[in-house]
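Journal club prep — side note

Before the paper discussion, L.F. wants everyone to see what a predicted structure for a comparable chain looks like in token form. Sequence:
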Amino acid sequence: MAENNAVTTKKKKRHLSLRAKNALKGLVFVTPFIIGLIAFFIYPIFFSLRISIAQSVEIIGMKLKGITFYQYKRAFVEDTEFVPTFLATVKYTLTTFPLTIILSLIIAILLNKEIKGRGLFRVIFFIPFLLGSGEIMRQLLNQGVDRAVLNIADGRIIPYNVLSYFGSTIVDVVQGLFGTLVTVLWRSGVQILLFLAGLQSISPALYEAARIDGATEWELFWKVTVPMISPMMLLTLVYTIVDSFTSIDNKLLAYIKTYGFANAEFSYASALGWIYFAFIGILVAIIFGIMKKYMHTSEVEEVRKRERKHRVITIEKARRTTY
């Protein structure tokens, strides 16, 4: 008996040492990520917060002295350009992101159909996202892409010269519309893929059962498709909001960069960044709370849970009868 106990203890020690080795290997692989997270994310965040409430900042050596909330007061009381720029950015973003969601969902539904070249179309819609780096988007926006779209194919769509006869108001509206559509389609690659993943996860049996009950295509969309992709829709909403508020053509970000890099007012730029970050966080939390109430639990998952419980109960009953 003593020998058996000694053997079991040795096995336990070997098992624990093997687990420790595996944990050490995992820690080695995760260490570069942890170092990068601390050095390039966590530390800059806390340092920018400290700068935003610093009473004085010495550029050489970045020495901080004192604590004050003057920079936050300055943003809303003394700065006459921050609030209008902030409201204009919020207005533009809140008007474009619903359009992005709607167009992405429509395109995802079309790409989910059994059509020829479906994979090619998916790649075509996702390529702009891969190419849409900051410099490329900046060059496109600076080159007047809205006017280029109007004059495409030698003016066969809507000639710019024809629009000029209707007045500057019509020209501005049409240019803004085309510019917004181009920008939205350029940034909707990830949203389309997310919606495609949600649509492909829906069981065809749900549609068949609804059609047997006499549901129309409109009812299938609102009573089957929308509830089933609601978790993916929440993820897409959060991603689109964050992506829209941090886009390259964001006027507020350009305004903050002007103070941070051009004027070297690091305290004020950090305070503006934290105000902007707090607003985005509150907005995302509100949308998350609203959407969470309408989150749909899949009926298939409920059936699977019931089946698992039933299996556990039957196994326990079988064990009790055998013993």
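L.F.'s comment for the group: Residues 77 and 83 are 9 Å apart (CA to CA). Keep this in mind when we get to the figures.
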